Amino acid sequence: MKKGIHPKYELTEVKCAGGFTVKTKSTVRNLEVEISAFNHPFYTGTQKLLDTAGRVERFNKRYGIKE
């Protein structure tokens, strides 16, 4: 690599809005993120699934579409 053209690659701390912190290496000093794998609803199992079957019937009924 050429000297003097690359940013410094140093130890940094990534802070999640949920309070979780991870130490890693990056060219950015400190990072703050809103969502991580430790508090995302999909990964924690708290994600709610929507019932889309009723929505289709309601749409068809509203616009008079016969099946």
Automatic annotation (TrEMBL):
Alphabetized UniProt keyword annotations: Ribonucleoprotein, Ribosomal protein, RNA-binding, rRNA-binding
Tagged with keyword Ligase:
no
Q: Which SUPFAM superfamilies match?
A: L28p-like
Q: Give the record's GO biological process terms.
A: translation
What the entry lists under InterPro entries is as follows: Ribosomal_bL28/bL31-like_sf (IPR034704), Ribosomal_bL31 (IPR002150), Ribosomal_bL31_A (IPR027491), Ribosomal_bL31_sf (IPR042105)
Q: Which Pfam families match?
A: Ribosomal_L31
Q: Name one GO molecular function term.
A: rRNA binding
Give me the Gene Ontology terms describing cellular component: ribonucleoprotein complex; ribosome
Q: In UniProt terms, what function does this protein have? A: Binds the 23S rRNA.
Q: Which HAMAP family match?
A: Ribosomal_bL31_1
Similarity annotation: Belongs to the bacterial ribosomal protein bL31 family. Type A subfamily.
Under NCBIfam families, the record lists: L31, PRK00019.1, PRK00528.1
Q: How does it assemble?
A: Part of the 50S ribosomal subunit.
Q: What is this protein called?
A: Large ribosomal subunit protein bL31
Task: Identify the species of origin.
Answer: Parasphaerochaeta coccoides (strain ATCC BAA-1237 / DSM 17374 / SPN1)
**Source lineage:** Bacteria, Pseudomonadati, Spirochaetota, Spirochaetia, Spirochaetales
Name of the gene: rpmE
